[in-house]
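Q: Convert this sequence to structure tokens.
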Amino acid sequence: YGKNTIKFLRLHKEGKKHIVKEVEVCTHLRLTSAQEYLDGNNSLVVPTDTIKNIVLVLAKKNGIQTIEQFAIDICKHFMTTFFQVVYVKTYVQEAPWQRLHENGIPHIHAFISVPDGIRFCEAEQCRNGPLVLSAGIKDLKLMKTTQSGFEGFYKNEHTTLPERNDRILCGELFCKWSYGECKDFDFDCIWNKIRECIIEAFAGPPDCGEYSASYQKTINSIQMHILSQVSQVQVIEAILNNVFYNVLDMKNLGLTNDKEVLIPVETPYGSCACTLGRK
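A:
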């Protein structure tokens, strides 16, 4: 049991410069006994209101250097404070605020929300067990307008999809990776590097791109690139929800539409998922 969607903004001041972290936290506990479920005995239950207040107090006292470290702090607090807690799991996601710049000069206290992927992390710990940490990015929408196709697929009497060797590839990506033994990692640096790897593998070289034979192949290319470039990542899960575009038939308007006006297909949409790890 626990508390979901604990939302708050943490403001840190360094002289005139302001630093913000807006986060959403979910924290769940498992206790030594299930007596609150079986017998209605609440003597070991840490109220969810207490859980919420602890998260807020930790944010006040420790600050939020990175959301990964904040999740670790939460897990450690519940493990060291409550004898009856045998397992704690904390999920933290960060709102995408970026500092405003004017003529290349960073503003000291103004920010803009840039929806180019939501950063999140998850920490789990059992009593007398290692802390397991994972992180990720979600709601990252990517598109390339060529260098994508889908051909040679299995066909039977129910197949109506035509083969294509030149199409728009668009999708919303969810990516979650796990770390090995957590050492003194630079979590900001790692997250930014992985985001760069995702974009590089999806798009290919800027002057020519790279052909994608399928959404599945694109997912695998992203995962392989991350594992080759970021040694701290042990296992990576990726889900790509596809967004399809159909070329609009404009013959009745007396026009030839050479893939210049397209209509998005909202539902149903396809989805591809893959988990890849090191040996």
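The domain at 138-277 is CATH 3.10.270.10 (Urate Oxidase).
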